[in-house]
Amino acid sequence: MANNTADHPSGNSVAEGNHDGDFGCTVMDLRELMELRSGEAVTKIQNTYGDVQGICRRLKTSPVEGLSGNPVDLEKRHTAFGKNFIPPKKAKTFLQLVWEALQDVTLIILEIAAIISLGLSFYHPPGVCGQASGGAEDEGEAQAGWIEGAAILFSVIIVVLVTAFNDWSKEKQFRGLQSRIEQEQKFTVIRKGQVIQIPVAEIVVGDIAQIKYGDLLPADGIMIQGNDLKIDESSLTGESDQVRKSLEKDPMLLSGTHVMEGSGRMVVTAVGLNSQTGIIFTLLGAGGDDEEKKVKKGERIDTSHLLRSNSEDARQKKKKKHFSHSKTQDGIALEIQPLKSEEGVESEEKEEKEDKPVKKVNVTKKEKSVLQGKLTRLAVQIGKAGLIMSALTVIILILYFVIDTFGVQQRPWLKECTPIYIQYFVKFFIIGVTVLVVAVPEGLPLAVTISLAYSVKKMMKDNNLVRHLDACETMGNATAICSDKTGTLTMNRMTVVQAYIGDTHYRTVPEPEVLNPQTLELMVNCISINSAYTTKILPPEREGGLPRHVGNKTECALLGLVLELKRDYQPVRDEIPEEKLYKVYTFNSSRKSMSTVLKNTDGSGYRMYSKGASEIILRKCSRILDASGQPRAFKPKDRDEMVRKVIEPMACDGLRTICIAMREFAGEGEPDWDNEAEILSELTCLAVVGIEDPVRPEVPEAISKCQRAGITVRMVTGDNINTARAIATKCGILHPNEDFLCLEGKQFNQQIRNDKGEVEQERLDKVWPKLRVLARSSPTDKHTLVKGIIDSTVGETRQVVAVTGDGTNDGPALKKADVGFAMGIAGTDVAKEASDIILTDDNFTSIVKAVMWGRNVYDSISKFLQFQLTVNVVAVIVAFTGACITQDSPLKAVQMLWVNLIMDTLASLALATEPPTESLLLRKPYGRNKPLISRTMMKNILGHAVYQLVIIFTLLFAGEKFFDIDSGRNTPLHSPPSEHYTIVFNVFVMMQLFNEINARKIHGERNVFEGIHRNLIFCSVVLGTFALQIIIVQFGGKPFSCTALTIDQWLWCVFIGVGELLWGQLITAIPTHRLKFLKEAGHGITKEEIPVEDLNEGTDEIDHAEMELRRGQILWFRGLNRIQTQMDVVYTFQTGQTAVPGALRRQPSVVSQHNDAKTVSSPTHVGISSSSLSANSAVAAAPPASASSSTAGSECAWPRP
């Protein structure tokens, strides 16, 4: 171990710098140094700087004291070496968003039709065209022919502006969320000898950073001192093996990599755009001005040192990936491809054939969220139906016109009349397109976005920081929660309450006088030295408060014991600083213990202190200290007796038992420190302590809420099974006299694995339904359990699993789960990166709130669907039959656009922002296969559609008699709007308005007004729509084909609308189970429905809907796809950003879909073309770091020069 106290400069104030703040090395020197790896780097450091101390001297920093923190000095460092910040890509301007919204195919068709109609309306034919030209004799009306075209164009503009505004506000929200996540990122550095936490963006070159297990490194640095340090560099190199760091072999630490084990200190040598992650960002054109950074054509950049990718090695990795080849003239090609769900489907032969010099970056993708899958599928079905209806409408209208004009009336086709005929055809075409516009529910993606964005904002207040939008909705479907014990169910404030020292079991902490002084001395030394020096107990923040525990909570409990025994740990640590520790075996999940070796002061041999889980350490003890402080033999039978008499009673009280032990190595040569099994044996047991971690008072209530809501809570913990069982009973996870399983990791593995040691799903299916507690479990066990439950097909519904985790090793399980919750306080960076939602208060009750919000999102979308589909069904049928019978749609194009788009947008706002209520937790979860549209909803949709159609057709064919007005049927081409058709339009809108109130309930409740006063948005939308409708009818005139109505006619319209509410009560009274003919719609996709050949390609089940989509060539569906893609792209980028450290993590433009990314087979696969190597692609350089070798590191490589 390097002894860093040797020769560092005494201080580091700027004044000492002889070249007036000039540092002994430049940015480029340090950049070149950081590009080297392992041996090369060590040689370079020795040749150029002497050693790491030399670098510290040149950077004017002290390896022990750190920087002075003087603002002038920090500013100089910013100027010389840059800030630890990567400038984000510029957000899209509002005009760019408008341009994107204009790309919608349906809108383009409408625009073209409107322009043709506009152009033709100025052509006045000679009188010979007769009746076909309609009322052309009346000049005034003929002049007004242009109004319809103009009105359509105008409404298209309104729609585009609304869409663009929504996109813009959504992007703003995402950026806000991102910056909030970034601000919370802090890192530990030493300044003026004090250990402090500063925001990642404030780290400067020359800072001494403390790194520990679970950190995500925020800048590049060189190790000064380290204990057993292992780093996962897969985010940069694509190799999943952990790299062991040491001063002699490989001291280089790179930004964006994860610390998987150990601890240490490093001197920061590169930040921001000069760090390894920053360089990759720059190559991708993310940093600053894109134009400067663009890689010039033909210019070759040697990036091989950046990303060594051992493709042979990667090929043998367990998780195989599909690659997609793309070649661009700029020489850098990026394809973000999903990890396919079936493992091992590798197209190696293909890869060998197409051996191009282009390598790829893979980003792992979770399956598309349950809701998105169902919506995609439903929208495809609706789109197909709409297309057929609109095509039929156009064909029937044209045929009728042609047969009537040229067949029945025997008119010749006159050349000069052609524009008139074309004008008719254009009008028919516009009606057809309008039917289509109404049929495709483009309000859906908007409703989803609004609902999710609204929920995410509100969830912040409930201590849920949502990182991936769709996690919020998936949570509503959760059927199982696998929770950690420590910190989530318990308070994570640990105290030693019992101890077994010197053959005596003390039920409370003993007085120091009672103990043998020699034993006490050994215990104090063992606890003080054999723990992370960053763990401390600080005085309370306010008078009368509890002391603050900093660092590892178990170690805090042991330090608390030292203080209770009236001793102090700090003097011991001051006497033996970290540099003097000879070797440290840090705690990890497989060891479940920690040991520290010291060299004896007289140089004769070594002493090792150990602590860890009692049953593990006691197995390695051969002696134990008796009451007089003398070691005596400790045989297996003594151990069994101790387990029975001491450890089990402690565990049954819900205590975690920790054993403290030591070992002396006599002076005959140096032991083989790498042979851990040999080193960790022959220990002498000093004491066993019982640590209490009280259950959070609010947890039992929260768990019973979950159980009422049909969610199974399972506890997965590394603790002893008795401790786990006791806590599970206190929490209410286990109830007396119930048939449930509590297993230890070892038993669990015996039950689920076959003779070859492979996990078998059938065996797992026998275990998990009854399993409630899994104790002494490893992270692999947790991952196996989560994967097993998700993949299982037993039971009526597929399971949706949420998992909580805080440790680095929880990464794989958090990623695999449908929703991963990371702890905001106790969680490591690795866990937070792998998670979907961060619990800012580490509390289980916040998970219950997340369930409530998730269910609310689901219900909001169902409410909106129920409303939207009623509008669609009625409008399509009215337009279609009206057109076929009367040659003209009773609802004009502009009116349809008003009904469809404006009411869609407003209704999605109204229905998607209903606040959740506790009653949401009184029903079972929907699960994966539950259809979006239940039979109750189908009954409501069809029931209301029947009422509306009957009313509208009655008014259409007999309304003129009822209201005693002129009929509006069969009017010529440019005739003025009639009262008759205005009433039809007005009644239609009134019925929709009142039906919106009905749509607030989807489970057949009678009181549709319940809680309506709490939702201000809903009330204002309904009233606002009503006010707008009055303006349109009374003052809309020709553009809206409306004419002002009298007060009587208005009252009739409102009265018919109120009839909707009464009719709704009638429908509710009909029991759904009697209506056998009703079908559900909007199912998730089951495996059986996918053709076998598609499955073989390793397709995600939900993406099958997209394949249907492509086969159906449904162009206008792009609208829905676009917003979904935006959400998915955001989500891909948020998942993909694992490798980019805190301040460097950037939110790419959310809606930069059309220019930069070509949607491949599902919105989440973004192929980025060379022209747009912008921030969007930046993230590709940083595929998710896998937290253990069970998820193989992603390949990441570049074209060779």
Write up this protein.
Its EC number is 7.2.2.10. GO terms for molecular function: ATP binding; ATP hydrolysis activity; calmodulin binding; metal ion binding; P-type calcium transporter activity; PDZ domain binding. Residues 291-315 have a biased composition (Basic and acidic residues). Catalyzes the hydrolysis of ATP coupled with the transport of calcium. Residues 290-329, 1144-1201 are annotated as: Disordered. This protein has 1201 residues and is of the alpha+beta class. It is 45% helix and 13% strand. The chain is built from 41 helices and 30 strands. The strands form five sheets. Strands 12, 13, 16, 17, 18, 19, 20, 21 and 22 form a nine-stranded mixed β-sheet that branches. An eight-stranded mixed β-sheet has the order 10-28-27-26-11-23-25-24, sandwiched between helices. The two termini are 40 Å apart. The relative contact order is 0.13.
